[in-house]
Design a protein that fits this description.
With 138 residues, this protein is mainly alpha-helical. The protein has 5 helices and no strands. Helix 1 crosses helix 3.
Length: 138
Amino acid sequence: MEITELLATFADPAKIKTMPPFQLLVGGLFTTLLGMGVTFVALIALQYLLVLFEKLPIFKDPPTQEAPKRRGPAPAKAPVQPSYAPNNEELVAAITVSLATMLETSASGIRIRSIRRIEDTSPAWARVGRLEQMLSRV
């Protein structure tokens, strides 16, 4: 049986049940290779199409004007002022209570000596996701 006849036989579910196992195996493998081959060729064509679009002038970014170069040392950046008070008694109390609850101990045995803010290095999408989760709980 030729491959085209075998694939035509695969179109009819009633005929598939009467086929010998070897023909089922060959037909299944050929169908898999054919599907993967078409997908692979389509992805390669899409890649070349994207490369072609990058080279077209209508898709290029407009030229930007460069800022004039300054002479001399760069201006110093202003130090970032924290938006919280490091010695805030309410903040210390809230952290102490949350630690005591988490550690299942009394708050009198916990001493907080210093509070430092940690820089958030997570990407913007992660922060937005966390914010959406917190707002959905309300």
